[in-house]
Amino acid sequence: MSEEIFGNIYDIQKFSVHDGPGIRTDVFTKGCPLRCLWCHSPESQTFEPDLAWMDIRCIGMEVCGLCEKACPEGAISRGEPKESLKGDGMITQPVIDRAKCTTCLECAKACPSSALYNTLRRVSVEDCMKSIRQDARFYAKSGGGVTISGGEPMSQFEFTLALAKQCRAEGFHVALDTTGFAPTEHYMEILPYVNLFLYDLKCMDSEKSKKLVKVPNELILKNAREIVKAGGRLQVRYPIIPKLNDNEQNIRATAEFCVEIKEGIDVVQLLPYHRLGAMKYVRLGRKYPMSDKVEAPPAEFMQKVLETFKSYGLPAQIS
């Protein structure tokens, strides 16, 4: 039974309008083999639990302090009093010594306000379907559906396949957001249950790909070709990252590859770099990999990239 198949996720997001057509429910799986320097969802990277800290939820150690008492490693201490983020007076919040923390998550279990929390949720396919079914009326009116995202959902193939199958059995449109870095046979197996692949193309030079995302790109390109050859539909996503993959050579190489598989492409999305995920690194106690000097590409530059893709006869847009 599908409900007996479990997977690890970090979120289910409702009323999404950016990950496929119409209004969608996004199921975000946890774990990814890539390590993109600009990743805006660091909680999606690891396959294990992460301890995260959201300071605005903290009610203060003056009235609580349960996290400090619960930590067996002594990794939590009291910080200096400061103005509450809610603007209602002074508050003392915990300080986490990440070097001592073993991610036992005892502090998260003790935290009454979920200021400290585990990024991993163990769920069944049926758990996901309960959330998905609640939004069925929105899919019908908007042409939306379900997007299985990540992380890399193909890294939890049994769960992703079972979820896609159940969604299609109940008549829901399914989009699969993928890096393309998974066994080709898995894409062929799941293809009948996926209406649209949201497919990332980040760097066309394989050696540079290893530096930027920590994996080569031969398998990624092969899988895109095989999906199209088998009749799958692609929404190609090309993130434009200043000084990393926004050079003329990579732009044109990406466009030329898209021409090669054009028969299977619905749209090429050009995605300008943003720093919206930087705060998530702070919550996890990690350093944001991108320099503060890297800013979003200017609108004029994005327009030039768009014109380049359109000059190749591709259905491109800036998203």
The CATH architecture of the largest domain can be named as: Alpha-Beta Barrel
Radius of gyration, taken over Cα atoms and rounded to an integer in Å: 21 Å
Integer tally of domains: 2
- Which structural class best describes the helix and strand composition? alpha/beta
CATH superfamily (homologous) name of the largest domain? Aldolase class I
Average pLDDT, rounded to a whole number, is 96
CATH-derived topology of the largest domain: TIM Barrel
Q: Going across the major beta sheet, what is the strand order?
A: 9-1-2-10-11-12-13-14-15
Main beta sheet strand tally, sense and closure: 9 strands, mixed
The residue ranges in which pLDDT falls below 50 over 5 or more consecutive positions are none
Number of strands: 15
CATH class of the largest domain: Alpha Beta
Number of helical elements: 11
| SSE pattern | EEEHEEEEHEEHHEHEHEHHEHEHHE
Between the first and last Cα atoms, what is the distance in angstroms?
A: 39 Å
